[in-house]
Amino acid sequence: MKKKEKCDYLDKVVSFVGAEFGDREPKIMEDAWRRYRELLSENSNESKAVKMHTVDRIYPGIAMFDALTANGVSRDDAARFLNDYYKWRSVKMAKLVKRMAAFPGIYKVFPSIFTSMTRKMFGEAAGFKAKFYDVPKGEMRFDMLVCPYYEICKKYGCPEIVPGYCESDDICYSDMHPKLEWGRTRTIGKGGDCCDFKLRVVK
Description:
By secondary structure, the protein is an alpha+beta fold. The protein has helices at residues 8-21, 25-42, 48-70, 75-101, 110-121, 148-155, 162-173; strands at 129-132, 139-146, 180-183, 195-201. It has one domain (8-201). The termini are far apart.
């Protein structure tokens, strides 16, 4: 028996597609899975660091966008649908982050944890490029200058789905803890020259 394919993004979007697009759902999902497999095949030589972002996030989004537009959904409606769906997916992570920040005193080290995590998971090996700033203890500040979420979606002709990925950060991190201040004024995905990340402990 052939092992069932798995992709959390595509597995969970089905009910949302059915609710919005009715009887077009089976064909949309069939086309999305086919496009997803094509993207994985085309990019099979990617490094593990890159695949951490593409396999579960970027390529499913592109596949869904292509499937929706191929089935008569306008580009604007497809982008709005996918951006809303990704924001919905981010709520679960936001709750987890908030629970973690609630442990006594742990919020104080969140800026350093975020800096370390960004260097490791969102570094040049994964296709990102960032400029980090020297800041006082209890603060984090860096500008993301190159983002593969934007670059890859632009390459495949759907940069309009990137804002959903951008907004997931705000959902996850803007309300972590009363003594943590999250700030970002622009993102590449929304037309900015960079993504200016800031996080600091409120004294």
